Amino acid sequence: MPDDSQSGYLTIMNVLRPPPASAVMRRYDLVLRDYVGEFRIGVWDHEKTRTQRVRVSLTVTVEVPNRPFVDDLDAVVSYEYLIQGVEAFQQSPHIQLLEVLAEKLLALCLSPPQAVFARVQVEKLEIVPQAAGVGVVLTGARDQSQ
C-alpha cells in the first residue's frame, strides 16, 4: 500500500471518498437517437395496408446515487430496454396516430424506477417530400409522489 506522499495517491483517495451529504443523487441522460424502422401507423386507408418509415428519438433522464460508476452493466440503467421496446412496437398492431405511439413510447421510457423525465420524438419520413420528417414531440415526468 503506497503512503500518502506518493504521487497521485491523494487524488485517487479523494475520488473514492463518499460524496458529501448535500449531493446524494445525480442525473444523466440515456439517448436513442434517430432510430429508423417500419411501423404500422396512419389514419388513411392507404396507410393501413403497409408499413411506414418512422424515425424515433428518445431521451430519458435517470436519477442515480451520486457516486462513481461501477464498470458493470448491471450497475446502470441500460439503454437496451429502449431498443427492445421500440423493436416491439414495430411488431404491434396498427396504430392510427403518432401521438398514440409517442405516448406508448413515453410510458416505456418512464418504466424504470430511476427514470424521472423523458422526451419522445416520432416522425413519419415519407409524408412530405420537402421535409426530412413530420411528427410529434412528447415530454413527461414521473409523478414525484410515487
TrEMBL record:
<dbReference type="GO" id="GO:0046656">
    <property type="term" value="P:folic acid biosynthetic process"/>
</dbReference>
<comment type="pathway">
    <text>Cofactor biosynthesis; tetrahydrofolate biosynthesis; 2-amino-4-hydroxy-6-hydroxymethyl-7,8-dihydropteridine diphosphate from 7,8-dihydroneopterin triphosphate: step 3/4.</text>
</comment>
<dbReference type="InterPro" id="IPR006156">
    <property type="entry name" value="Dihydroneopterin_aldolase"/>
</dbReference>
<comment type="similarity">
    <text>Belongs to the DHNA family.</text>
</comment>
<dbReference type="Pfam" id="PF02152">
    <property type="entry name" value="FolB"/>
</dbReference>
<dbReference type="GO" id="GO:0005737">
    <property type="term" value="C:cytoplasm"/>
</dbReference>
<keyword id="KW-0289">Folate biosynthesis</keyword>
<keyword id="KW-0456">Lyase</keyword>
<keyword id="KW-0614">Plasmid</keyword>
<dbReference type="InterPro" id="IPR006157">
    <property type="entry name" value="FolB_dom"/>
</dbReference>
<protein>
    <recommendedName>
        <fullName>dihydroneopterin aldolase</fullName>
        <ecNumber>4.1.2.25</ecNumber>
    </recommendedName>
</protein>
<dbReference type="GO" id="GO:0004150">
    <property type="term" value="F:dihydroneopterin aldolase activity"/>
</dbReference>
<feature type="domain" description="Dihydroneopterin aldolase/epimerase">
    <location>
        <begin position="30"/>
        <end position="140"/>
    </location>
</feature>
<dbReference type="InterPro" id="IPR043133">
    <property type="entry name" value="GTP-CH-I_C/QueF"/>
</dbReference>
